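Here is one chain, start to finish.
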Amino acid sequence: MIKNIVIYSLLIIFLSAGCKKKPAEKEYFPTTHSSTVIPSITISPIQYKYPFFNPNNANEIIFYYIDIEKNINQLLKYDLLSKQKNIICDTKIISQPKWNKNNWIILNNNDYSISLIKSNGDSLHKIINFNTSLYPTWANNDSSIIFSNSINLSSKFTLLKYNIYNKELDTLYYGYTALNSVYNEFIATILNYRDYSNISFSKYNSPIKWETLTNVDINGNNRIEGICWNLTNNTIYYSRYAKGIYKLNLNSNIEVNITKPNLNIKYLALNISSDGKKIVYERINESVINNEIINEHNIYIMNVDGTNEQVIKIK
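Its structure:
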């Protein structure tokens, strides 16, 4: 009897153990390992930026030179024919310098102030030093500058005109403006909104009445990085970051890409020669070496129809 009880008890224990609920297994989500490693981005230590033609000589340009490793930041003048370069000044700037017919050059300093300097390096002095000032350009036959000014970069900008001789400061427009360019009595600018931007123009010596030319995405590869007039005709040229360089005639309103789009090429600041024949511009060439993207900033030149593109080899 006792033997049967023991056997029965062992049977119950065995069955209870066998029927015990299995503990829930932990869920393991596999880590995704992509076969493509996202490369890091490195800017070339030597950079050539912000080219601009001499308005009195289509064979001469100025540009901004950076050597990161040697801590060199200079505004240079370069003769396209003789290949001679000269240092105008040591400086740090954040937008394209603008050269006028009286040999004054506007500098947009890295502290968001604005200075003037002669093309031979003389008479460097600060003329605008309040709030945040960006994108200065010449106006009124080189007697004035027009620029965007804001309390900070996240606030709306006021478009201002400043006479460099009598020091008068006039308000032209209140809104998000950028990349200003003047042709005779007209100013072209980029008006930025929440999701898009557009190129617009207006007379600036009378109340601003913007006429919109084209709308583009405000961010990404389509964004506008440079704008200028061809002073010999009624045409605006502008760069769309990874899309190319476009021209837009104000009479026909026809937009033409004069370059061949390539995602490894980015287009930035640009300028047209005074004879209306050449365009000079900053171009980023991207290359991938050992999973590292190398961005090289160089200066290129080509005909205004997009032909004969070549890098300016500055040594």
